[in-house]
Amino acid sequence: MRLARLLMVAAGVLVMAQTALAGPQIGAAAPDFTLTTVDGKSFSLAQEAKSHKAVVVMFIATKCPYSNAYNDRMRDMAAAYAKQGIAFVGINSNKSEPADEVVSHAKQHGFAFPLMKDPDNKIADLYDARHTPEIFVVDPDGKLRYHGRIDENYEDASRVTSPDLKNALDSMLAGKAIAKAETKAFGCTIKRV
Amino acid sequence: MNRARKGAAAAALLLLTAVALAAPPTGQVVGEVDAKGLTEAVAREKGKVVLVNFWATWCVPCREEFPDLSRLQKNLGPKGFALIGVSTDFAKEAPAVRKFLAEQKPLFANYHKKTGGDDQVFIEAVDKEWGGELPFSVLYDRAGRKSKTFSGKHSYEEYEKEILRLAGK
After folding, report:
1. Of chain B's two ends, which shows fewer C-beta atoms within 10 Å, N or C?
2. B35 touches chain A (CB under 8 A)
3. Is residue B123 within 8 angstroms of chain A, CB to CB?
4. Is B11 domain-assigned?
5. Looking at the DSSP assignment, which residues form a beta bridge with residue B137?
6. Is residue B14 in some structural domain?
7. In angstroms, what separates the C-alpha of A163 from chain B's closest C-alpha?
8. Residue B84 touches chain A, beta carbons under 8 Å
9. What are the percentages of helix, strand and coil residues in chain A, rounded to 5?
10. Which residues have CB under 8 Å from B123's CB, separation 6+?
C-alpha cells in the first residue's frame, strides 16, 4: 500500500518534471526555425543568431493590453540594441490576429523589426510560449540565454525597477553571466484555436 | 405599540443583515489579496473543493468562460464546492472591473490582486509552473491541497469533471 502510494507520488513528480521541461531550458539549444516575414522575406533564426551578438525573439500580439503596454519599449529597445549588434524579431502566434492586422499594428507603433505570423502556432509550441509578451534571447551559438518578461512594470515605463531584458542584453554584451535569466509576468494566453 | 414597532424593525434589520451575510458577494470586488491573503482565502474554504480562477476584464477567453464559472458555483456549490475569482486587472481598470462584475453578477467572491510589488513573486507563489498566462485556474481538494492547474480557457465540462472527482472523495 505504502509502495503503491510512493509510486503514485513518483509518477506525479515525473509528470510535473516533464511539464516543466516542455520548452527550451536556459543554456540549452533554442529550437531553430524559419518563417516568412509579413513583408515576404525569409527569416532563419540560426542565420540571424550567427550574424548578431544576440537575437531577441518576442511573442507579441496586436490586441493584448499587456503586449500593447510594451509597444514603445519594444520599438525603442530594438532601435537602441540594433546599433550594438542585437536583432529583435516579433512573432504573432494568435490565430485570431491576421497578417494584415500585424502589418497595420506595426505601422501604427513604428515597429522597424521583422514581424512574422506563426501558422498553426508551431513556433509557439516549439518554445512552449504561453502568453504575450513573452521573450526568448538566443546567443550566436543558438543557445537560449534569457526567457521571460521585458520588465516588471507594464503599467508605467518610467517607474520600472527591474529592467530584466535590458539587464540580460547588457550582460551578454559585456560577456558576463545573466543574473536573472528567467522571469515571469502576466500576459494574454496565445490563442492557439 | 411603539415598542412592538421597534422590535419588528430590529428583527427586520437583523434578518436583512443575516441575508446579506449569507448571500454570495456578487457584483463587486470583496477585497484585495496578495499571495498570502489568497492562501488564507482558500484555507477558509477548507472542507470544500476550491477552484481559484485568475482573470482580467481585457482578457477575452477569461470573459468567455466567466458565465460557466458562475454555473459551476450554482450547480456544484451544494456538493461542497467553492469558487474564488481573482482579477489581475491594472489598477486603473478598477471601474471596468466593477462594471464587468455588475453585469455578470457572479455567484462567487471576487478579489483584486493587490497592486504593487513584483508580479513574479505572486505568480510563483500561486504555482511554480504558471507562466503568467490568463486565464489560469488552480483546483484544491477538500483538505486544501493543490490538485490540478488549468492554463487558458476551459469548458464547463472539463472543470466539472475534475471538481466532481475531488468532491466525491
Report:
1. N
2. no
3. yes
4. no
5. B53, B150
6. no
7. 12
8. no
9. 40, 20, 40
10. A184, A185, A186, B130, B131, B132
Q: Whole-angstrom Cα distance, residue B107 to residue B76?
A: 11
- Residue A106, min C-alpha distance to chain B (Å): 21
Chain B residues in contact with A189 by the CB 8 A cut-off are: 59, 61, 133-135, 151-153
Q: Nearest CA of chain B to the CA of A83: how many Å?
A: 31
Alpha carbon distance B17, B13 (integer Å): 6
Compute the C-alpha angle B88/B95/A161, nearest 5°.
45
Q: What is the rounded distance in angstroms from the CA atom of residue B19 to the CA atom of residue B13?
A: 10
Nearest CA among A64, A120, A123 for reference residue A91: A123
Instruction: Say if B7 falls within a structural domain.
Output: no
Name the grid cell of A47: 542565420
Q: Number of Cβ pairs closer than 8 Å across A and B? A: 64
Cell of B54: 485568475
| Distance (Å, whole) CA B139 – CA B137 | 7
Residue B57 lies in a domain: yes
Q: Which CATH number goes with the domain that contains B138?
A: 3.40.30.10
Please write the tens of the pLDDT for every residue from B34-86.
999 999 999 999 999 999 999 999 898 999 999 999 999 999 999 999 999 99
Q: How many domains does chain B have?
A: 1
Does the pLDDT value for residue A18 go beyond 80? no
Whether the Cβ atoms of residue A188 and residue A132 lie closer than 8 Å to each other = yes
> What is the per-residue pLDDT across A26-75, written as a single tens digit (0 to 9) for each?
999 999 999 999 999 999 999 999 999 999 999 999 999 899 999 999 99
Range of the domain at B145: 24-167
Q: How far apart are CA A118 and CA A24, in angstroms?
A: 18
Q: What is the ipTM of this complex?
A: 0.76
Residues B26-45: tens digit of each pLDDT: 678 889 999 999 999 999 99
